[in-house]
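User: Modeling request: complex.
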Amino acid sequence: VTAPVVVLAVGNPSRGDDALGPLFAARVASALAEDVAAGRLELLEDFQLSIEHALDLAGRERVVFVDASVAAPAPFSFARVLAERDASATTHAMSPAAVLDVHRRIVGEPPEAWLLAIRGERFELGEPLGAGAAEHLERAVAFFVEAMRVGFEA
Amino acid sequence: MSFDLEKAQEPDKLRRIVIEPVSRVEGHGKVTILLDAERRVHQVRLHIVEFRGFERFIQGRPYWEVPVMVQRLCGICPVSHHLAASKALDLVVGAKRLTRTAEKVRRLMHYGQILQSHALHFYHLASPDLLFGFDAPVEKRNVVGVIAEHPELATQGVLLRKYGQEIIRVTAGKRVHGTGSIPGGVNKNVSRAERDALLADWPKIFEWSRGAVRVATDLHAAHQEQFDGFGYVRSNLLSIVGKDGELDLYDGVLRARDADGAILFDGVDPQTYRAQLKENVRSWSYMKFPFIGALGPEKGFYKVGPLARVQNCDRIPTPLAEEARQAFVARSGGKIVHAPLAYHTARMIEMLHAAEVIGDLLRDDDLSGDDLVAKGPRAIQGVGILEAPRGTLIHHYEVDSQDLVTMCNLIVSTTHNNQAMNEAIREVARTYLDGKEPTEGLLNHVEVAIRAFDPCLSCATHALGKMPLVVEIVGADGVVLEEIARA
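Assistant: Request completed. Predicted assembly structure:
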């Protein structure tokens, strides 16, 4: 059974604030364990987005991409993403819009998609999550848990 | 010691072109090209712009954590690091010989990684150049262009990638951050049901892999003259080979050939790699320059990866890949092929081999055995070498009596190819850029040469907003003269 909502959380757990994505997935797995167990929510994690993630979107109603961001306002931004070809389609580290675009071209119209970009600052190998990022993570998790309950709005 | 076009005489008086980051390769790389007023090329360098400190990251950790932790060094080929570290630490726990189940589960994981990595590179990173031409409009020269004009190929690439990742999930326990391989063996087998599920999809994977060899071969044949000369760089070749000289990507002994194919050394125990391979540093790059010690840095550099492996081995131990290898050798009249663009055909021959190996392993009941871990007398160090998708990967650890890693030395695949890649882009610059006004299409020629090696410059950091794609032409005074942004 394909869960209607999928979270695609990306990042490297050992690179400072790049761990925001994987840590978000872990926290939500705990906070929404019943939704996961009931097949209402699936949490996927990877180092970065790549073409095969387009197939993970098949049959979903909604996808939420979660990533650390050096550009997002603190503590996080949450916005719709539309399928769009961009330069990241030429790399292993694709943007959410490019993944949606590959889905559209290979599978069909993609699901409703959102990007939860959590503000991070430092990304050095071996560094722990920074204090600021940890606070941003808490607020992002709380926001998402609430959104799963009442609905998604930017 | 300096190679032609490595160092300009008066760099401050020259115009500097920077390609940063190089696209469709892994991680952050940068190419700088120095031109004079007549646009003559004086210096070309591929730089790695980030010091990664991998060894420092590992030192001080308990050895049993290492096969999991090293996956975080690289988000592109974490499985290769997972297995190379496990192989090195097998020796620390005294497991000189693994159980049959452990050996075969690891091989399945490894060949799954080879399959998915090679598929992604060929179909989605390299094929836009090969199908549409190096000068094609940039908006067409990407995976979306491939999907638009060759939808079956693009879809096959995605599904081959997905299949390899499913093998990794089954053998490593998870799609990412797998824990399946441990010092001394594995912590799970592959059940009959898992094998059957993978076998159900295998026939089409095999057929697509056969087709991929034909596509790569036909593309090369269609542009034979250009492809054979493009970025041509003679060098030695290095890889591991099986004990009988056969292609073996998981285990074996070190073999090197010179540029004409003569054996330089053979049968070298991986534990003694330091007696054969030395490393050089240059002030302008964080990536080291390995070389065969006996030949010195100028004559001792070498290629690794598919092009080296397919020519370094005596045979491929699966029938259809061996047939393809023989045809590859016959086309060059038995001479060693040094054209970087021939990497693509060699890569697809290896992908076919991986598909054949995967099919054989999935039918092997040893995969479902229960004897998972071997042990023996504890040792203080171990070296693990395997052939990762991009080339020879070396992990070397020393462990103290408290089980903590005290020394870690990693030579990753792309590092071996450092000099060869630099030489290839210098050849491209001589041929295509010298005396011409650089355009995006011409600069893409430089990237085509780099991409052929499928380098992994990855740091696995990719946070949103950190991957600009821009080519800057900067004057000697540091002022940006021109900016060419990709679509």
